[in-house]
Amino acid sequence: MMYLRLFTHTIAHQDLSHYSGNFLLLLAVGPLVEEKYGSKNVLIMILTTSAIIGLINVIFFPRTMLLGASGIVFMFILLASFANMKDGRIPLTVILVGTLYIGNEIVSGVISHDNISRMAHIIGGLLGALFGYLYHTNGLQSKKGKYRY
User: Fold this and answer.
1) Side-chain half-sphere CA neighbours of 51 within 13 A
2) Distance between CA atoms of 4 and 57, rounded to whole angstroms?
3) How far is residue 99's CA from residue 120's CA, in Å, rounded to a whole number?
4) Scanning 8, 73, 79, 111, which has its CA 20 to 30 A from the CA of 102?
5) Considering the entire predicted model, what is its pTM?
6) Burial call 4-42: b when 16+ CB within 10 Å, e when fewer
7) What would the pLDDT profile of 70-93 be if each residue is shown by its tens digit?
8) DSSP states along 101-143
């Protein structure tokens, strides 16, 4: 079951407020991300992000249960920031969004002691930045046109 949980932790949520917060952001940013990167690439990014966040949680926080799609939401936010990347130049919005979101999570993690997985947020944001950069510089773009979904 542990291998399945590496992926399914993003489906379960603590309560309706947690669920609606995550999925409202996914619904707001998701169409832009899917249009820009393609459905197959987005699915691969979601599964990869879920697995990496799950593995890091199991390795470093083995007694902590992980719930929610916050890491995926942060990944989408950073991916959306890369939407206007041209000529290999990182847009200022990526730097600002990354600094504000990831910086806020680091500060919040130091200041507050709540049940929020700041690690999932930070890893999701970093992976979103990595995927966005790789998409625009390493040819992930050409796969979208080839498969057309």
Assistant:
1) 8
2) 14
3) 16
4) 8
5) 0.79
6) eebbebbeebeeeebbebbeebbeebbeebbebbbeebb
7) 889 989 988 888 877 777 677 787
8) HHHHHHHHHHH--SS--HHHHHHHHHHHHHHHHHHHHSSHHHH
